[in-house]
Specification:
By secondary structure, this protein is of the alpha/beta class. It folds into 2 domains: 91 residues, Alpha-Beta Horseshoe (Leucine-rich repeat, LRR (right-handed beta-alpha superhelix)); 135 residues, Alpha-Beta Horseshoe (Leucine-rich repeat, LRR (right-handed beta-alpha superhelix)). The N and C termini lie far apart (58 Å). 27% of the residues are buried.
């Protein structure tokens, strides 16, 4: 069933005008209100790419996107790129040209590799690529000096790159549900790290100086790894870590923040 051409043209013009004025393009679940009310995208809409530098936020969550086009570099001022829950298999090299971007979410896709060019995104603060098929991460990740959060959970990683220690601003690292066997010692250089989540990997030990060097670490979760609490408690810096962890939860209690069922053990899950 179709619709009147004039009505469709008016809707498109209004939509483009709104996107250009706000800089926000949100087409989650393929709900584009045009002639077809529920259109599932398999590729980037041309009209979005044509907006070029006007776009600040692009959200194409829950569609059927297979890849990201090379023309993504047209969105030169984009700050937030949200492409979760699609079927994306690859990222273009041109993604490295998005020099204004601060937030990327690619959770729940089919990525098997991550391009080296991501290291060019020097303003990136939050990168979430959980639920993909990644077996490795590029060493260029270490160039992301402003990165605050990295989520690589639910992939097929066997290791984290040595360069991770150069992500000096990193505060939260989530790498649950992988096959990681050991952490690079460079992790000990993450002096701003507050939370380290490595549940359900194959870790038998963690770098001996981790607790001593990471002086802001408040939460570490190692549930489902072949590592014991005794090993953890014998690490240098454990007492100081324990003090920070308890102060964190005492502050939450004082602020009437709900604490989960694990209570005060929640910050050190082994």
């Amino acid at each position: 069933m179709g619709c009147f051409a004039s009505k469709g043209a008016g809707s498109k013009a209004s939509r483009l005008s709104r996107w250009q004025a706000t800089g926000i393009v949100a087409l989650q679940d393929g709900k584009l209100k045009a002639c077809i009310l529920f259109l599932v995208f398999t590729s980037f809409p041309d009209e979005v790419l044509d907006l070029g530098k006007s776009v600040r936020t692009l959200d194409l969550t829950h569609n059927k996107l297979v890849d990201v086009p090379e023309e993504i570099n047209k969105l030169m001022n984009i700050q937030r790129l949200i492409l979760a829950n699609n079927v994306i298999e690859r990222l273009p090299m041109n993604i490295g040209k998005l020099q204004s971007i601060k937030f990327i979410m690619l959770d729940g896709n089919r990525l098997t590799t991550f391009p080296d060019e991501v290291g060019q995104l020097v303003r990136l603060e939050r990168l979430s690529i959980s639920g993909n098929l990644l077996t490795s991460l590029p060493e260029t990740l270490g160039s992301l000096r402003n990165l605050l959060l990295l989520n690589v959970s639910n992939n097929k990683l066997k290791a984290l790159p040595d360069s991770i220690g150069s992500c000096f601003s990193l505060e939260e690292l989530q790498a649950n549900e992988n096959s990681i066997e050991e952490l690079p010692t460079s992790v000990c250089s993450l002096v701003h790290l507050k939370s380290l989540c490595l549940d359900h990997n194959n870790l038998k030990q963690i770098p001996p100086s981790l607790l001593k060097e990471c002086k802001t670490l408040q939460n570490i979760s190692l549930h489902g790894n072949p590592i014991s609490m005794d090993q953890f408690q014998q690490m240098e810096g454990f007492n100081e870590f324990e003090d920070r962890r308890r102060k964190k939860f005492d502050k939450q209690i004082d602020s009437n923040v709900m604490i989960g069922s694990k209570g005060l053990d929640e910050g050190v899950d082994l």
